[in-house]
Amino acid sequence: MRVPALLIAALLLSARAPASDKLSFDERVEVVRGLMAEFATVKAPLPRSKKPLPFEAAGSYDRKHWDDAGKELGPAARVGDLIQITKVTIESDKILLEINGGIKGGRKWYDRVEVGMGNRSTPIGQSGAALAGTAIELLFHKPVPAMKASSIKKILAPVLDFEKRSATELYAESLPPEIQKAIKEKRAQAGMNREQVLLSLGHPVRKTRETKDGVELEDWIYGQAPGRILFVIFEGNKVVKTKESYAGLGAEAAAPLPPK
Fold it and tell me: Which residues lie across from 209 on neighbouring strands?
């Protein structure tokens, strides 16, 4: 049985044509352009590594593997540091992202220079910059599918934030829900540490220390007379109690009177 020539030609063309679910040439260009030279804020410790750090396209990664790499070569960037993607390589089943020049990249010599007078000195380099370079490989375990740079940024969201939010915002998002709620409501509660109280209430008007039964307590005092005063009492780095009072009365703040 002879197969018609037109049918043979159609079969050959379909075999050569790329599948619609694979990354096209135009999409490759968009991904490279959309990621190359992009800045991101680090959300999880980013270690240096001789080999690219594996990151699954499903949005997960082996934290222990990353921690082990950090123990060997130290950190490339800490939470809140700003990094830059300096090279994008698309392979058949993965995308390789070079961070800050890769394993041989990182801060310049002048980032380690400090100037000062007396006992105080200040680094010349910009604070918040990453310590060194590394690389991340985004693993698909199949041909890289059709996607855009924005989709890759969402996949990397557990470790990199491309929205250029502050380190403070990223830290707040990592806290337990009840602590996040207290910070949003601008109040302190038992169990908070100093950083969390600062996020919630800002710096106190003054601080006092005293020792009770061999335990050293520190009071952070918010408010001034006349008016409401809040005492946030720390034992070590944790809040153990909060107390409200009215200046000059010495009594704890009572519930508001019912409306007339």
Answer: 218
Alpha carbon distances (Å) from 44 to 8, 47, 48, 208 = 54, 10, 13, 35
Phi-psi region of 74 (alpha: psi -120 to 50; beta: other; left: phi over 0): left
What are the domain boundaries of the chain? 5-165, 177-246
User: Is pLDDT at 197 greater than 90 in this prediction?
Assistant: yes
192 and 182 Cβ atoms separated by less than 8 Å = yes
| Domain 177-246 = CATH 1.20.5.320 | no
The 10 Å CB-count burial string (b at 16+, else e) for 207-226 is eeeeeeeeeebebbebbeee
Across the beta sheet with 206-212, the strand order is 206-212, 215-222, 228-235, 238-246
Bridging pattern class, strands 53-56 and 134-139 = parallel
- For the stretch 78-107, pLDDT in tens is 988 889 999 999 999 999 999 999 988 654
Long-range contacts from 222-230, C-beta under 8 angstroms, 24+ separation: 223/247, 228/253, 230/188, 230/201
Are the CB atoms for 23 and 90 separated by under 8 Å? yes
Question: Which residue is associated with the tokens 């707040």?
Answer: 172
How far, in Å, CA of 188 to CA of 85, rounded?
A: 39
Contact 144, 25 (CB under 8 A): no
pTM of the model: 0.54
Please write down the HEC assignment for all residues of 81-105: CEEEEEEEEECCCEEEEEECCHHHC
